[in-house]
Design goal:
The complex is a heterodimer of chains A (420) and B (124). With 420 residues, chain A is mainly alpha-helical. Chain A is 71% helix and 0% strand. Chain A has a domain of 82 residues. Chain B is an alpha+beta fold.
């Protein structure tokens, strides 16, 4: 890394840490999430231009806060000026009405290190928004990414992402969302939405094996960073810990999950020496601590399953009976055909392919699953295990035709071609 | 997820419409474009020139051979498309139904998923 790169990286890390706090302080003072968010984005742009040349200010929070507040005040003045042109009673206004001191949480008598990440997340993951808008707004307002960065991460033009973010902000305004945390009755539902959005961001980054790899891989890192921040604020919440563990344990496999040319490598064939050990240690520790505290939720269970997988030194050492039990509990806690599909794999590995195929037969009657390529893909694997190569080949080919994922299609077609 | 909303054109159907009907279809696209631009779902749209303007290029023995006219002679041909990024297949179908051509007798919108480069590894 060259020196300017290092400086640029340091500035980016710093501003993305600070930006949500500046935004939160502005929103608390002025309301108007939409305008505040624009003001912070402009301040971030100014920092991106000025700091590399003039050096990082001694108090970067104060700098960003002052610039953003000034932008906000300019905006209010601009609106006020417009109103003045329209109204004749402006002369009666006190002259200093439009002037506000810079926002600084310290002036509000609050802790300067107050972490507003969670409060902002609740706002960005407002139930009035679609999942895609929640994701985009979270990355921008909490992650501090620019619209251009988010657009490029999701492989859409800026002209698509810009309106999506604007509309999300308008919806929040229309829904009358405030900066107050949700009350006790809503809390569980709202935190579930927040965790789901973080999970979506993670998956978007993790599942990508080609394309602009670096930027999309960054989404996984960003999701982990934000989930870590939520975990810091809610250390006792088992599902937050579970989600963080799930991300770490999944991301740990990333170096081994694709070949150099982007082909998918199934779990059983991955070079386990390439898995990222520190992430595994941290993830296993998190999920063990969370599950020992009681109330077990879906993220903890998925993390526990991921932990059983990564704890096996070789694929054949995998404790499949334990995975089968965990999937059974997960199925009870959050019934979902995808969970049943995965349980069928664990059952096949424990009790033989016929038992797994039996579970798949029932799934085929579920309208949501009958046409899904993933059902055909799992059936293909279990048929191959059972030695029915001709039926397995047909099922692989069917799955390959149905998937819209290029790397999965390539993997499934290769499995089909390998069979006699 | 991205979908291509494909508008197949059929000159015989198009010519059977009254001028008012044709105008309604054409102006209807303006409203549709505005809707999906504002919702942040539109990626790109193009209308294609008549296939009589097409040329097909084939390389044989290392040399390009150019023939005038469309790739396939057919009553219907690709007239244009919208590329959209939407939350679900259901939403893509909903958008397709909003395209004015969908309501024209004899025409329909084909909704096809666009392949992507993300993928999950199998657990076995």
């Amino acid at each position: 890394m060259t020196e300017p790169d290092r400086v640029g990286r340091r500035i980016e890390d710093l501003t993305r840490e600070i930006a949500p706090r500046v935004l939160a302080a502005l929103v608390r003072r002025y309301g108007h999430f939409d305008e505040c968010e624009d003001a912070v984005q402009e301040a971030l742009l100014a920092a991106a231009v000025q700091w590399p040349e003039q050096g990082v200010p001694d108090n970067p929070y104060g700098w960003l806060s002052t610039v953003a507040t000034r932008r906000m005040v300019d905006q209010i003045r601009g609106e006020a000026a417009r109103r003045r042109r329209e109204q004749v009673d402006f002369a009666r206004r006190p002259a200093d009405e439009q002037v506000a001191p810079p926002v600084d949480p310290r002036c509000d008598g609050e802790r300067p290190d107050r972490d507003d990440t969670l409060t902002l997340l609740f706002l960005c993951c407002h139930p009035a928004l679609t999942a895609a808008s929640q994701v985009a707004l979270t990355l921008r307002a909490v992650g501090g990414l620019t619209t251009e960065q988010i657009a490029s991460a999701f492989l859409v033009p800026d002209a698509t992402m810009g309106p999506r973010i604007s509309r999300a902000k308008q919806r929040i305004k229309a829904a009358g969302a405030t900066f107050d945390p949700p009350d006790r009755a809503e809390w569980a539902d709202r935190i579930r939405v927040v965790l789901h959005v973080l999970y979506l961001i993670f998956n978007e980054g993790y599942t990508t094996s080609s394309g602009p790899v670096l930027q999309r891989a960054d989404l996984a890192a960003e999701a982990i960073r934000l989930t870590r921040a939520v975990h810091r604020q809610l250390p006792e919440d088992g599902e937050v810990a579970g989600l963080l563990a799930l991300m770490l344990l999944t991301d740990a496999r990333r170096p081994a999950r694709t070949t150099a040319d982007g082909a998918l490598v199934p779990l059983a064939e991955q070079d386990r020496g390439r898995w990222h050990r520190p992430a595994i240690v941290e993830g296993v520790g998190l999920v063990e601590a969370a599950m020992s505290r009681g109330a077990v939720g879906p993220y903890q269970l998925q993390a526990a399953i991921a932990a059983v997988h990564v704890e096996a030194a070789r694929a054949q050492d995998t404790d499949w009976p334990q995975i089968a039990v965990l999937y059974q509990i997960l199925e009870r806690v959050s019934p979902n055909p995808m969970v049943t599909l995965n349980r069928a794999i664990a059952v096949a590995m424990t009790d033989g392919p016929a038992a797994g195929l039996e579970l798949l037969r029932a799934l085929g009657e579920d309208r949501r699953m009958a046409e899904h390529y993933r059902l055909a893909a799992v059936r293909a694997h279990l048929l191959e295990m059972a030695g029915d190569t001709s039926a397995a080949r047909d099922a692989y080919e069917l799955a390959a035709r149905r998937t819209a994922s290029l790397p999965e299609q390539r993997y499934l077609a290769a499995r089909a071609a390998r069979l006699p | 997820m991205k979908f291509l909303l494909i508008m197949h054109n059929n000159p015989a159907v198009w010519e059977s419409l009254t001028e008012a009907e044709r105008n309604a279809v054409m102006t209807g696209h303006g409203g549709f474009i505005k809707t999906i631009q504002e919702s942040g779902e539109m990626i790109v749209t193009q209308a294609l020139a008549d296939p009589s303007n097409s040329a097909v290029v084939r390389v044989r023995d290392g040399l390009p051979v150019v023939t005038d006219g469309p790739y396939l002679e057919a009553k219907e041909f690709l007239g244009g498309y919208y590329l959209v990024d939407v939350a679900s297949r259901e939403r893509a179908l909903e958008l397709a139904a909003m395209i004015p051509d969908a309501a024209v007798d004899g025409l329909g919108i084909e909704v096809r998923p666009v392949m992507f480069s993300a993928g999950m590894e199998m657990e076995i």
